[in-house]
Amino acid sequence: STKSSSVDESEISHFNALAASWWDPNGSSRILHAMNPIRQDFIKRCRSLYPPPGYSHQSKLHYLDIGCGGGIFAESAARLRDTASVTAIDPSPEVLAVAKQHARRDPLLLEPGRLTYLNTSIEGLAETLEAQGVVQQDRQYDIVTLFEVLEHVAYPSSFLEKMLPYVKPGGWLVLSTISRTWPAWFVTKFMAEEVLKMVPRGTHEWEKYVKPDELRQWFRKLDGQGEEELGRLGRWSEPVVMEVMYVPGLGWREVGGGGKGIEGLGNYFFGVRRE
């Protein structure tokens, strides 16, 4: 569908209610804290498969983190040695207030340009960057991340289309989400929300989950666009897929065969490179 906004108000209010506990490592976001190391590993894996032309270890990366929440990933990316800047956006002012407050604890994150939080949706990003004085050629990023967001979006394809122009040629779009399968329902809805109460009830809607194969097909279809659309949305590599599972007491672990094996236990990472 081509609805104009990707922001679902009921999703925003759900995450606003969790804002205060975002940085509590034992709170409702503890699974996201545990996921951070594997997010970093997956980005490294993607980039080592196709090193960008002219890349050297002196090259510094620019990140755009969409739906950054309280900043769990954005902060960790901003601390990496090869990071030039992280721009992190979220439509919820309450959650961003928590992110900004937490970032003030680390002098490194206060260096000008290192970590910038913007209260905007993807639809409002171009205007917001313009208001910040970011010039046109700096509005594309080496790594655009979308972690645990796609399963909360009502119209995933139009949402993704709005993101693609922000990935620079040779750059990566990296996301993690949940596959729409019965095992995923059992693990993420029944066990996590109802039985173990690891995440608050109502966090997920099974109908909104997207399968890796659906994403794969969607990116393949982009190749058939006309010249103008191709210029805007780009041509994309074959995706890198990694299925993961949360093991209580051990954290997140890779499972399955790169999205080709037991596709559908639940959570997975998906990376595509703009050609």
In short:
With 275 residues, the chain is an alpha/beta fold. It is built from 9 helices and 8 strands. Strand 2, helix 4 and strand 3 form a beta-alpha-beta unit.
Attribute tags:
globular, eight-stranded mixed sheet, 275 residues, 8 strands, 9 helices, alpha/beta
Write up this protein.
It is built from 9 helices and 8 strands. α6 links the parallel β4 (141-147) and β5. 34% of the residues lie in helices and 21% in strands. The model has no long low-confidence stretch (mean pLDDT 83). The chain has an 8-stranded mixed β-sheet with strand order 3-2-1-4-5-8-6-7, with helices on one face. The protein has helices at residues 9-17, 30-49, 72-78, 93-103, 125-131, 156-163, 182-195, 212-222, 227-233; strands at residues 61-66, 83-90, 115-119, 141-147, 167-178, 240-247, 251-255, 267-273. It is globular and about 50 Å long. It is an alpha/beta fold and 275 residues long. This is Ubiquinone biosynthesis O-methyltransferase. InterPro entries: SAM-dependent_MTases_sf, UbiG_MeTrfase. Keywords: Methyltransferase, S-adenosyl-L-methionine, Transferase, Ubiquinone, Ubiquinone biosynthesis. It comes from Rhizodiscina lignyota. Pfam families: Methyltransf_23.
